[in-house]
Amino acid sequence: MVKKALLILVLPLAAAAAFVTWLLVGNTVVIELDQFEIQKALETSFPVEKTYLHLIKVDLSEPVVNLPETSDRIGFSVKIGVGLPGFGKPLRGTAEVSSRIRYDAPRGAFFADDLKVERLTVERHPEGYLERTQGAVTWILRGVLDHKPVYTLRPQDAGHSFAKLVLQDVRVKRGKLRLTLGVAR
């Protein structure tokens, strides 16, 4: 009877000690997101239409995610319409964008960060103004994506909730965004 009572006391303590050791010795959790999951998250933010500096009207729609292999950035393209409010039809084109992933630990969420318009093509756009349009697209995308997570950890998943501490690595491998989380050291 005494052995059984000791066993009942020792087992939970051993399990707790093993768990603490597991956390402290370099536990990591890897989350893999495929193109479809990221695409779905981005689509909720589009279409968007804004006027930049009270002068340039820009509409962005139809994001298409691209995960460049072995990169720490995700890529996506968006259809763009740009023009002056009240002056005819907007010019149409495409913006190819890349971003890093930022982890917000208190919210357990991953956001597109450090957005860069890698290439902007707009038919019949005056060349001298393409840089301003690129600035407008960047400003709009930052405003939209700063508040919309690409992925949020599920609190009901014990592995995820324990790993809500530090983003250790972001990489695209085999067509999936690979997010490695672990305990701060």
Any overview of this molecule?
This protein is α+β, with helices and mostly antiparallel strands and 185 residues long. It has a single domain (29-182), classed as Bactericidal permeability-increasing protein, domain 1 (Super Roll), CATH 3.15.10. 29% of the residues lie in helices and 42% in strands. It is built from 4 helices and 9 strands, in the order H-E-H-E-E-E-E-E-H-E-H-E-E. The chain has helices at 2-24, 35-43, 130-145, 158-162; strands spanning 28-34, 48-52, 56-66, 74-83, 91-104, 109-122, 151-152, 166-173, 176-182. The protein has a 6-stranded antiparallel beta sheet. A hairpin with a 2-residue loop joins strand 8 and strand 9 (176-182). It is elongated. The two termini are 43 Å apart. Mean pLDDT is 80; it is low at 2-7 and 9-25.
Number of helices: 4
Cross-sheet strand order for the largest sheet: 2-3-4-5-6-7
C-alpha end-to-end distance? 43 Å
CATH architecture, by name, is: Super Roll
- Helices and strands, in order, run as HEHEEEEEHEHEE
Give the low-pLDDT segments: 2-7, 9-25
CATH superfamily: Uncharacterised protein PF07273 family, DUF1439
Reported for the largest beta sheet, the result is: 6 strands, antiparallel
CATH class: Alpha Beta
DSSP strand (E) fraction? 35-45%
* Helix coverage percent: 25-40%
Task: Output the keywords.
single chain, alpha+beta, three-stranded antiparallel sheet, 185 residues, 9 strands
Helix and strand topology:
Elements: H1 2-24, E1 28-34, H2 35-43, E2 48-52, E3 56-66, E4 74-83, E5 91-104, E6 109-122, H3 130-145, E7 151-152, H4 158-162, E8 166-173, E9 176-182
Antiparallel strand pairs: 1-9, 2-3, 3-4, 4-5, 5-6, 6-7, 8-9
